[in-house]
Fold each of these.
Amino acid sequence: FVESLGLMRLGSTLFYEHVRDIVSYVTITEGHGCWGLSSIDMFGDIFITKLQDQRNPHVHYFDHVTHEAAHYYLHALMQFDPLIENPPTEEYSSPVREDKRPMLGVYHAACVLSNVCKNLQAILDSGVELHDKKSFQQCFDVSLAKFNQALSTVEASAKHTLLGKSVTESMRDV
């Protein structure tokens, strides 16, 4: 885990600072069924499940720390603005879940995936030596495909607030 943050610090300084400013405590857990967890009720604390298979652990932690920090960024904004005004009864397909989700869930997915893609692209473009660059590239490719799906749904159906529209526009530069 610490090595993953070191790679982020060297190759993706902006995202490293974002994580450093938002995340106060990381707990690596044993378990199944949930890769990461963050909640407004425990703002700043994240839980990430220890990698249980043969995937690259640097990619795993790099991806999930970025993911959970992006959720916290949205939670902080939502303390002042709802970002999306679609009723929770309206449900949409989401690229990260099998079940349909309220627009806010799809919006969160788009924002989180945008941050993951930007962070992965920064590390891939940085010149930092990666032991398994192919794994980082694969994670980027999968995340980008999911991001494009989520953004398409958001652009087609979201009822944005002014701030929500601004956040959506910032997502597009992946």
Amino acid sequence: TLDYLESRPEADVERVGMLGLSMGGMEALLMGALDERVDVVVSIAGQLDWQEIFAVGSWKTIFAGLDLRHRLVRLGASAGEAQEAFRQEYPDLDVVDATKIAPLLATKPLLLVVGDRDPYIPATAARNTYIAAQASYREQQTVNRLVFWQVAGASHSFTKPMQQRALAWFDQWL
């Protein structure tokens, strides 16, 4: 995607922001961490903190279509048992854990947004992602580039206030 963007004459590739919602929010974190061309990141409801997601039961919603999920629910698996079963079935699951990825963005402005009624990404998972990133941002002396915003009354969505805040974030940093 960024390679294509670089080929476009109307694109200013010196100022690239990435925004994603849900898994796109996780992808925005990954791209921001892996590609130096991404300057600013906004992750909306994309903070996959597996420890928290399994602890609060959101995994049942996230993985609703998987046979493994159905089997574990039928067996009455605990959060720990379910998490271990998923790690065995999907050994690279932790590669997409926002609490491990967000600290890698410490030189880049990062806005983490989640609704307090999100059935997929609990606000605690987003807050844990923010907390995990804080030490790296402090070490880089860029703590002013890291913001966590929990939106009251919002679900797994990209509301008008979220859109406005994301655009303001890009205006501020790009």
Amino acid sequence: LQGTAMNRLINLLFRRQGGFLLVEAILAVALTALIGLGASMAAAQVCTQTARNADYTTASRQAMNAIAWLGQDAQVAQEISGIDTFPEDDLVFSWTWWDNSEHSATYSLADGELRRTSSSGGEETVSVVAVYIDDDESLTFCSLDDGVLTISITAALNRASVTKSRDIVPRPSL
């Protein structure tokens, strides 16, 4: 008797199981493909945005580094030359220390590299201050108005472009 009751229960459970219809199978495959397509598009967008953010961060840091170096030398300089012609020509800051030693910092821009040549006591040191600097005179420039030196630097990397500006009141000539 127990076997018969068990057989009835099994027959009742599996009686109406005929498998998937073709329409159900097609819908399941289409839904899976749609979810996969959406996931791959989202992953591609994340990768693209990550690269864009990295380019922006790099350009921003390069522009800020250039502004920091230029600003530091501008604040101690007693004489500044090349303001109107930078970046086409060199920008030169010069000053005399308390011990009457002559110092200068010359900035030149070539191939996107801003180089600083510092001269102190007859020794010269050349260093690359920033890279990816745009040499377009409308984007990277210096101007002096009413005793205020304005420095504007644009760094561009791939599709990211960042402009940083700073207004500096140079030290008066002693």
